[in-house]
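Running log. JK asked me to keep both predictions on one page so they can be read side by side. First protein, sequence followed by its tokens:
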Amino acid sequence: MNRNVSLGVGAALAVAVFGIAVAPAAAAPADGHAQGGEQYFPLQSYRVGPYAAGGSGFFGGFIDYLNLINTRDGGVGGVKLTWSECETEYVVERGVECYERLKKGLNGAPVAATNPLSVGIAYATIDRQTADKIPLITINHGRTDSTDGSVFPYIFPLQLNPYSEIAAIITWIGQKGGGIESLKGKKIVTLYHGSPYGKETIPILDLYAKKYGFEITHLEVAHPGNEQQSQWLTIRRAKPDWVILRGWGVMNPVAIKTAAKTGFPVEHIIGNIWSNAEEDVKPAGSVGNASSATRSLPTAFSPGRSRSRIACT
């Protein structure tokens, strides 16, 4: 993830949580206690492993923004922002352990919110955070129904959810064919990461396939995504019109290179928001530059990732 882009996402996230985080601190008694002057962000980050590029960029950008607010503005309304990190390696169990370890705060400062940037970790801590009354931020992922704050008062989804993301992708494919009715009879394959994140849009795509009459096939790629030869051979035999790439980390450049090797046109791969950064296509070399489709695509649905050379929403 581009560092400057990451900083922008960190800024948006910080602004979103300040409204819920700073108000309680500002209202605390002015008796010199730590919670009156600090607000704590527990970071369930991942800077090592196959997903380190995404995690390092995002959490590094977020920390940069917190430092900026403290240095430039003296905090928010006089409230300093503090944080600490706990390495999850994008592993659900470690993410839960980090949550339990960090939720107690730091030096008496109240917890602002968590944002593990992981579907699996987010799902695993929803009930815990609701019980603990600690806000959970889900940025460009998470439960679609959590958009209803009256049902999920401590879950704060930002920018998009799985349903809106798939809606954008399917709408775009329809537009490429001349209209949504052109989807009827088309073949679409979803190549998805073998994780809760990869699987969360399967029922949504099934719903759209039934609604618009296209054929959908779901192919899983085992974590971390280095081995995809059999999946792309299956795709070659199926001859789909489009492949939706729901990848993450090393899975993305491997998908692009393997698609080219098996003869599938890269310009007919639609990368979702987590499959369209420069870090996803640069390792694929010249193959990653094969498509010019992104030049005509809107980027409103991918504000947190830099534009790539494969089609993206």
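And the second, directly underneath as requested:
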Amino acid sequence: MKTLKYIILLTATLSCLKVSAQRPRSAVLQRTKQKNTDTLVVDSSTQKDLIDIALKLINKNTAPDKRAKSGKVNISIIPYAGYSLSTGLIADISSGISFYTAADHHQNLSVIANDLGYDSKIQKFFRTRSEIWGADNNYKFVTDLRFEIYPTDTYGLGTFTSLSTDNDITYNYLRVYETVLKKITDDYYVGGGYNLDYHYDITAVGNANGTVSDFMKYGQTERSTSSGINITLLYDSRQNPINPLKGTYANLIFRQNLNFLGSNADWEQVAFDFRKYIRLSPQSNNVLAFWGIAAFTGGNAPYLDLPATGSDMYNNSGRGYAIGRYRGKNELYFETEYRFGITRNGLLGAVLFANGESFSGLQSGVFEGLAPAAGTGIRIKVNKHSDSNICIDYGVGVGGSHGLFVNLGEVF
């Protein structure tokens, strides 16, 4: 509980750094139906967040409507020291930046997420990921840049692996992903881009139980490069990807890695990411959310580039398990979550979630069993104008796996 207390106090203080260029228009965001979207703009004038609490503590005479207007840019910062299943003890600074590229806010919300951290597993990382919309939602620019020094654990390929096949592995990692999408018609987009995954200084000590690791059987190397192009089809009717109330997201990506672009091998992958959000009542922000992932890999893809637990863009899949707990050439994943409010002013909320994942094995190449997990968590509103929450979840999986997961913005 001390960790949670420090998170709240630090966030409340630093979130006051929010950029707030005030608009002359009405302070209340209207609950009007947006053209070509099934997501409503949320009235935030009666909501409370950690910034409101911090302002009230600083100045008890602060007027209730002091922050009624939404700024051009909303910034949320979370510095925290704590523990999670994937990192152990960690010191981290996460920030979220959200903005509209049009003055009337009648478009999708652009977001930039940054993460800088160091933990007791000697993991060091910097990540910046963004989804930026052009005027009138005519274009979408998706960027994923990261550098990591990442000692971690891998357990082999497939869903039938166990903790006894723990294989300590260390590597440096550079990722450069950039995709540009063009609107074809309402909420439908097509585009393409470039993807680079570069792992180097890879070392592995072998399985803890003395058996030969799947990493060695698969083809252990000291470095690997996957460099290729992607073709992307997208349907996105959400207006706010940070915390969708309604809408659908469906993203189909074909990636082809090529020798002449610097890849170690020609290999390809098809990945499909589907999300659906159902607002249960117009009088509340309670939401039933669904998330599905299917990924299929062909050719000789490097071991560390194979689909794995938490290998999605924001490393959020598979709560209940550490990142990389399961891995395979092919992946199927499904999650459902119920999100509901606790306080009427929106400051506190909670979730219940359950998920399951399955990966193909090394020898069989077919899906092996199912690894389920479930859990619950609390939500603390850090910025009511962007609807950003601090998400603190506790998940439990099979085989004794359980732990804490902290995120800025909803998990999906």
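Observation for JK regarding the second prediction: Helices lie at 2-14, 50-58, 214-219.
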